[in-house]
């Protein structure tokens, strides 16, 4: 399992009230009337009214052919173009879906849900309810009785941009190529997927790698693969192979001639902008009942976040994927036609959970009372205000993020007695007193076995929100008699120390363990508590504090094998109980995996909480969020 975590850590370093939803049931994607409804993975869906076609967006809306690649730097018509901000920094380097280094945020991106504009996955993930919606596939994926083989059927309507059908052979050859050329996906999944086979034209079988007991090493990784990894045409891949003399050349090819299956393709690209144009022959018009409303998707390459935010404020950007401090000022004070997914704080769906980690090797931090007292004393409301201008929900501590999906996976009443509210200075002091950890010499600081409790609270200097949060952690020290010194260091130094297994530089430090996708919340449990990582002295990507609990290890493995919903919930409950009892770390704040703010000066109908469509706020292009493009209309 370690290879996936090492790879995820590398890319994380490079990028670096519960949100209400009116419909908690998985949403069935819109289908034309002559197609059957498609089931999703997580539950039996209730019938949902398909989105109504928008004016000018039907499959035959344009009498002219789809725009080809353009040599002109002129912007396409504003009333046909949806503008984005915050996804593209610097010029696009590649259009190669096998590469992780293309710097192509509008066409090849993985924000826990793959970008579906140009290349497509078998399924689309919906972070709101954890469901998988068929795209290149049809129907739900099916496990065999032993949960070692996952069968997927290809949508017979799916077509490549050259007019040839998408087949199971394309899916199989894609995975084989990832392995052969050592791509990022190959590195991640080679320990979990033995093979991807095509027994017939429209049937795909993913075979799991097995452990010594004949069980799948991790069946969740197979479900992750089918909604995170693009299907790439076999014929084009073979052309790429023919002109590539090495693995480096294979993944380094710019792929200007790439064949795609999605609704958009490259139109224009330079160091100032990237423009995608709609393919009016897109096969998915039958799936969705129409084409996406915008004819063009454009992203201007801004110099920094301030410039992009300013453009958004003036209506030059429609969809902004940036953190905007005091975002509510846009509409409350400035009168802008702007909005977020939720109309009030925290404004977005928060899936990632930056946490303060305790180094178990630091003197006194091996004592639960010390760890829990610090966690109880921190004022999480202040952290939310100081770090995120109130854009973090106030949730009782657990291992679950702020989505309805994850909150439904455990029973809060069963762990309520273990939860704390934060800012409880009196409770923290009482806990330390009862444990006999007191200030014996009257210098203002408590001692444990005669040694003063003195710690560093560390963070990287390049992340203001993390800095603000860790300052709040350090500030509580004086209030509970513990000497906690704030420490900020350059990112390259910070991340290299955190990931070293035997580090003693940082006593308390901040790190985020991701969120969203079929692997969560299981992956979060594993990151925070699995002792598997303790043997790793370098390049570690989980359990950074060095915590060990045999019962937690057993639960983490049991969750992978359990399919009964009630038993699964009980397992998550037990994991949360252990976490809240031992407090190896504690969540400081909740953040969106992607910020999502829209300006409705030109386009309206963006996904919103409570609109009944259950489309996630993944910026209208990632995962099932791309369904948002089919509901837009001109203002």
Q: How would you describe what is shown here?
A:
The chain has 20 helices and 22 strands. It has 635 residues and is an alpha+beta fold. The chain folds into two domains: 343 residues, Periplasmic binding protein-like II (D-Maltodextrin-Binding Protein, domain 2, 3-Layer(aba) Sandwich), CATH 3.40.190; 233 residues, Roll (Dipeptide-binding Protein, domain 3), CATH 3.10.105.10. The strands form six sheets. It has a seven-stranded mixed beta sheet with strand order 8-9-10-1-11-20-12, covered by helices on one side. The protein has a five-stranded mixed beta sheet with strand order 17-16-18-13-19, sandwiched between helices. A four-stranded antiparallel beta sheet has the order 4-5-7-6. Helix 18 packs antiparallel against helix 19. The protein is globular, with a radius of gyration of 25 Å. The two termini are 49 Å apart.
């Amino acid at each position: 399992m370690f290879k996936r975590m090492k790879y995820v850590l590398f890319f994380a370093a490079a990028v670096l009230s519960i949100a209400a939803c009116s419909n908690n049931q998985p949403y069935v994607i819109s289908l034309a009337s002559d197609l059957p409804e498609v089931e999703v993975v997580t539950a039996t869906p209730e019938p949902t009214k398909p989105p109504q076609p928008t004016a000018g967006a039907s499959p035959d809306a344009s009498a002219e052919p789809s725009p080809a690649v353009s040599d002109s730097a002129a912007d396409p018509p504003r009333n046909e173009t949806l503008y984005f901000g915050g996804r593209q920094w610097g010029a696009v380097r590649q259009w190669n879906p096998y590469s992780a280094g293309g710097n192509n945020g509008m066409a090849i991106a993985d924000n826990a849900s793959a970008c579906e504009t140009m290349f497509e996955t078998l399924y689309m993930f919906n972070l709101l309810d954890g469901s998988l919606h068929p795209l290149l596939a049809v129907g739900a994926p099916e496990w065999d009785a032993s949960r070692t083989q996952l069968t997927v059927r290809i949508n017979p309507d799916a077509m490549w941009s050259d007019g040839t059908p998408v087949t199971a052979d394309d899916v199989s050859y894609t995975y084989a190529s990832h392995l052969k050329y050592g791509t990022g996906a190959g590195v991640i999944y080679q320990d979990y997927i033995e093979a991807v086979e095509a027994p017939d034209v429209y049937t795909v079988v993913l075979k799991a790698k097995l452990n010594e007991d004949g069980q799948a090493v991790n069946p969740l990784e197979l479900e992750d693969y089918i909604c995170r990894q693009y299907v790439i045409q076999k014929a084009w891949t073979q052309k790429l192979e023919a002109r590539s003399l090495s693995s480096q050349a294979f993944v380094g090819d710019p792929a200007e001639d790439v064949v795609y299956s999605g609704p958009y393709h490259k139109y224009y690209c330079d160091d100032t902008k990237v423009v995608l144009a709609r393919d009016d022959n897109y096969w998915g018009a039958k799936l969705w009942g129409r084409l996406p409303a915008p004819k063009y998707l454009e992203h201007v390459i801004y110099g920094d976040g301030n410039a992009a935010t300013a453009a958004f404020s003036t209506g030059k950007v429609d969809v902004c994927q940036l953190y905007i401090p005091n975002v509510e000022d846009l509409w409350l004070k400035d009168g802008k036609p702007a909005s977020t997914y939720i109309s009030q704080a925290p404004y977005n769906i928060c899936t990632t959970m930056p946490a303060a980690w305790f180094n178990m090797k630091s003197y006194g931090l091996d004592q639960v009372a010390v760890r829990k007292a610090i966690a109880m004393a921190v004022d999480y409301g202040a952290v939310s205000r100081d770090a995120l201008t109130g854009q973090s929900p106030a949730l009782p501590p657990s291992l679950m993020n702020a989505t309805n999906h994850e909150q439904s996976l455990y029973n809060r009443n069963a762990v309520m007695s273990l939860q704390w509210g934060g800012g409880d200075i009196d409770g923290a002091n009482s806990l330390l007193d009862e444990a006999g950890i007191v200030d014996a010499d009257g210098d203002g600081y408590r001692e444990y076995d005669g040694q003063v409790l003195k710690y560093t609270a560390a963070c990287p200097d390049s992340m203001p929100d993390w800095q603000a949060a860790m300052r709040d952690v350090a500030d509580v020290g004086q209030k509970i008699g513990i000497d906690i010194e704030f420490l900020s260091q350059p990112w390259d130094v910070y991340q290299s120390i955190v990931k070293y297994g035997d580090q003693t530089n940082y006593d308390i430090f901040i790190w985020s363990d991701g969120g969203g996708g079929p692997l969560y919340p299981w992956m979060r449990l594993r990151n925070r508590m699995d002792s598997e990582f303790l043997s790793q002295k370098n390049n570690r990507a989980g359990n950074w504090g060095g915590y060990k609990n045999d019962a937690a290890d057993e639960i983490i493995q049991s969750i992978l094998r359990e399919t009964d919903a009630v038993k699964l919930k009980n397992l998550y409950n037990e994991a949360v109980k252990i976490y809240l009892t031992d407090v190896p770390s504690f969540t400081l704040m909740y953040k969106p995996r992607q910020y999502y703010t829209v300006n409705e000066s030109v386009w309206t109908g963006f996904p919103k909480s409570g609109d009944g469509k259950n489309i996630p706020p993944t910026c209208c292009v990632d995962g099932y969020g791309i369904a948002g493009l089919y509901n837009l209309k001109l203002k």
